[in-house]
Amino acid sequence: MPTSRRRFDLSAVVELLLGVPTVLSSLLVFFLAGRALVPQTPWLVPALWLLSGAVVFVPATDVVLAALAHRLRKPTAAERALLEPLLEEVCGAAGVEPGRYWLRVQNSREINAMAVGGHVVGVSTAAVQLPRRQLEAVLAHELGHHLAGHTRISLLRWWYELPARAVVRVVVLVATGVLVAGQAIGTRAAVLTSLLLVVALAVAAVVVSPWLLLVPVVAPLLALASRRAELHADRVAAELGYGPLLLEVLQRWVKEGHDDARARAPMRARMLASHPSCAQRISRLRRPPGRSPGA
């Protein structure tokens, strides 16, 4: 019987820890809301918000987010006939039940695939055109994300960060409106007043969402954790026997120039990239099992 490769990956834990500052800012937002709405028990509102995180574990949430955020649709009959047997093969190799995962398709001319929440495995219409075994390797990579908990942690972090990020968005919108109004009036006093109001709004945003001060440090670390998660999913696919096939897909991407734009990008853009280069993924996949990165 196949042995499941399900294990929590360190990159998922790192991502969860890096989200703590933003989550605490969200908690502060709800605490302030609690003081305004129910001053006798201000803790009630943030407590209910923390409990609301259970929505992440509701399967229907994955389907809604897949449709709204990634524009994933149900596969056609022909796509289902192709994809379901491949997913069954991958799940059989991993020792997990294929029925717990839902296939979705994204209309796109680019070869792409994604894992959403805890149940959705999505592929692009271009990826569906890959040779069957290569497509199976792509599905194995996405299953690797699910098995390691990457997608579930990302969704949980996203949910708990929503209030803090919403405050920042509102502040930016209001500040933009204030600046536009000051410029529309045109007088020196109006422009100066609008600038002072924008500064005051920025200070208020930092007070309510102090995580903003950590963005220059946290953002690159989150990107690094994301790149490590991709390499981990590659390793899971290789352990399931799809290493050579995944190499074929990555080599195809290199020939199509996927790494060209990345090589020309400035250092900061490369630091904030969520995916490693194809060249790095190929190098890791070719490394003998158990060999350390510095060996």
UniProtKB/TrEMBL annotation:
Record's cofactor remark: Binds 1 zinc ion per subunit.
Keywords, comma-separated and alphabetical: Cell membrane, Hydrolase, Membrane, Metal-binding, Metalloprotease, Protease, Transmembrane, Transmembrane helix, Zinc
Write out the transmembrane intervals: 12-34, 46-68, 166-186, 192-225
Residue ranges of domain Peptidase M48 in the record: 83-287
Q: Where found?
A: Cell membrane
Q: Name one GO molecular function term.
A: metalloendopeptidase activity
The record's comment on protein family reads: Belongs to the peptidase M48 family.
**Protein name, per record:** STE24 endopeptidase
Question: What species does this protein belong to?
Answer: Lentzea jiangxiensis
